Amino acid sequence: MYGWRIGRRWRWCFVGLSILLIASLYLLTSLPALPELAEVHTCPACFGTSLCPAIASGALSLTDIGSVPGLIGALGTKNVFFGSYNSHHVVLKKLGHTWELQGLDRALCVAADLAPDCKIKEAVDYLSDIHSLIMDYVSQSTRDNAGVLSSFHLCPSADNLDVLLSDVMKNSKNVSSDLALIHIWTLLHLNAEPLILQILPAEESWPVPRYHGACGRLVVEEYAGQPLSEFTNAPWPKRAHLAKQLLHAALQFTERHPAFRFYLTDISLDNVAVDAVGNVKFVDLENIIILDKYPSDRVKPATWSSQHVSENYGCSDCFAFSSDDICSHHISDHNFYAVCQELLVGGGNSGGLLAVVPSAALIRQPVLPTLLQQCAHSPGPKGRRMAAAQLVSALEKEASFSYFIQH
């Protein structure tokens, strides 16, 4: 009976894999050509044109059937595909569902005071002072009519928006400033991730994928590796090393930029990747709070000088926070809260990277469980940051011990 049940399970696994392979083959063979995916005809209301020559020359292409990332990418539900750019794996994103892209076109027509189904190029011609439109959007549409935060949340004011976007404008040096601003306007209304990837470039050792560029309504990013969720059962030395990187990333996003802080609001084990050499990279930066470190006295909230402590609002397994509270203080421990609760301890029903610590490690570092809980559930304004710093120290000792044992 036992052997029969195992055999039946494997037969069903084989059937399931066969169906998946057939579906994957169908989806891959039915994918549109890259020029069709790019929708260059929507420009200048698009994401950019820097990679259009790469599509024309064949340097950028969709991944063939022999690639595992290609199989996965074909089954994506949000217009995400996998490909090759100069022989490197890349991710190609349209940055939204089809209905979201259609909503972008309607928003463009409305902004130009035209009918919602107007022609895109006609709408762009009617737009005037695109810089002011961008400022107005960032300043006034922090929340939509339903109270939902926009994906690009700059606070406590948008006064220094030009400083924030200066690197994006530098990367657009091959087009006019007006065209670059239209591309920025388009991204702000749909998905600001490409802007973040240029403000915090991987080339400067930020823990994010490299941004290669755009063609029409298609952006190309580095393929960053497997999701962190694949490593929750990895050997302890590997998990300790990844956890140390995550805590360092929390510090980077909070402190490293000279003018702004970046708070992660959509964080999960599937929104962080681990590349081939073991480096962690945050791969979903669509939703982020950007805090201006040096706002004018005119816009500083009364609580600005104090530190903010993120809370779970009575739900121990929830990743809850107040964006208004974060924006009302000059600094927050939110990134440490996000990393410790969602990635290390594990929020909800998911187990985190350090949810299970080996008994041998607990003998060497008996304080680990306490530090993890203090980081996830802060006892005070500086408690979480202090716990995170001590966690890094303990994890470094574990990494050194493991290296000594292995060598």
TrEMBL record:
SUPFAM superfamilies in UniProt: Protein kinase-like (PK-like)
GO CC term, one of those recorded: extracellular region
TM spans (from-to): 12-34
Pfam families xref list: PIP49_C (PF12260)
Presence of keyword Signal: yes
Main location: secreted
Keywords, in A-Z order: Membrane, Secreted, Signal, Transmembrane, Transmembrane helix
Ranges of residues in domain FAM69 protein-kinase: 184-377
InterPro entries, per the entry: DIPK2A/B, FAM69_kinase_dom, Kinase-like_dom_sf
Protein family according to the UniProt entry: Belongs to the DIPK family.
Record's protein name: FAM69 protein-kinase domain-containing protein
Lineage, highest ranks first: Eukaryota, Metazoa, Ecdysozoa, Arthropoda, Hexapoda
